[in-house]
Amino acid sequence: MRWLPLAYLVFVMVLEAVTPTDWAVSFLLIALPMVAAYALGPLGVAAVTLCALVLEGVVAGTPCCTGHNLHQLWETHHVAAYLDTGLVGLLGVALAAHRQRQERHLVRAHSVAEALMRTLLRPVPHEVGRVLAAGLYRSGEVGTMVGGDLYDIRATEAGERAIIGDVRGKGLKAVRTVAALLGSFREAVDDGGDLLAVAARMERRMAREADELRDNELFVTAALVEYAARSGRVTIVNHGHIEPVLISGGRVTALTGPPALPLGLGTLADEEPVAYTHPFTPGDVLLLCTDGLIEARDHNGVFYPLLDRLRHRFGDGAAPGPDEVIDFLNTDLPRHTRVFHDDVAILAIAPHGTDGPPSP
């Protein structure tokens, strides 16, 4: 964009050189200040306007360069062109100043929104309790972190507990729901109940959130996970979310289990949610993700083949770490799709294989 005014100027001058003398091509210079307003600041637009006025005079009345007579410099239609250029220049200066103010406002708004999301989605520590962890977040909103996906992991007396979720909807309303749900999770995991009790408390919080927002269709798909180092097993409660993926010994498996309705829709179910378990030992990696990952499309409309890509990369049997899995997805996913239409949240955890006390 910064080269656009120069490119336009070159275009007009080349056109002036190749067209007949009586063609008033120089009048195209009237638009030059407005073209500059898309890329330059007010002072830059003012300088371009002055340059356009000078060039219009040169083209209008320089016999040696353009074949025009000097007396044509002050003909009525040329004077009108000078006045028009000056007027357009003033409008261009105002537009450039307004554009710069809007840009500064957007930068501040994006910075505040990003700071808010970073406060809610805190950086995933490399080590949480007796597991290693890594996370990734990509917003569907270009250039911002604002979105409706969430994740968190906490070390508790019952074991390491994690959540991954996807709020229905977008924008600030979704961010508010993310804040409410994460706050409920962070309080509930330390209250001593099992994973189903945590899920039940979050279900009640979602019901209150729906009442406050007056949204009967508000819900969150979520998967809750608890790792117990003593038993070497992971417990999962899945509320309508994508199944966790286990990478173990070169095999990549989706850990399916009894489904449950998303959080916020629990009153519609006849049965209570059911937890299920699976072995989870050192060398394994459990991957939690939102549908923005598996629904990312390439230019042919093909979804991202998560399981196949993981098998291709980690099917040699070598035990990867959570960081390695996240780094792979962070580079492989953009190769599959250039445009993200939905938020992407990914959390990977793995037992670190020590029996010492858990880290805070």
Topology of helices and strands:
Layout: H1 4-18, H2 32-37, H3 42-60, H4 63-66, H5 76-120, E1 127-128, E2 131-138, E3 149-156, E4 159-167, H6 171-188, H7 195-213, E5 220-228, E6 233-239, E7 245-248, E8 251-254, E9 276-279, E10 285-289, H8 291-294, H9 306-314, H10 322-336, E11 344-351
Antiparallel strand pairs: 1-2, 2-11, 3-4, 4-5, 5-6, 6-9, 7-8, 7-10, 10-11
Helix pairs in contact: 3-5, 6-7
Transmembrane segments: 6-30, 37-59, 79-98
InterPro entries: Bact_Sigma-Reg, PPM-type-like_dom_sf, PPM-type_phosphatase-like_dom
Protein name: Serine/threonine protein phosphatase
Structural notes for this entry:
The protein has 360 residues and is an alpha+beta fold. It has two domains: 4-112, no CATH class; 124-351, PPM-type phosphatase domain (Phosphatase 2c, domain 1, 4-Layer Sandwich). It has ten helices and eleven strands. The protein has helices at 4-18, 32-37, 42-60, 63-66, 76-120, 171-188, 195-213, 291-294, 306-314, 322-336, and strands spanning 127-128, 131-138, 149-156, 159-167, 220-228, 233-239, 245-248, 251-254, 276-279, 285-289, 344-351. The strands form two sheets. The protein has a six-stranded antiparallel β-sheet with strand order 1-2-11-10-7-8. The protein has a five-stranded antiparallel β-sheet with strand order 3-4-5-6-9, with helices on one face. A hairpin with a 2-residue loop joins strand 3 and strand 4. Helix 3 runs antiparallel to helix 5 (76-120). The longest helix is centred in the first third of the chain and has 45 residues, at 76-120. It is elongated and about 95 Å long. This is Serine/threonine protein phosphatase.
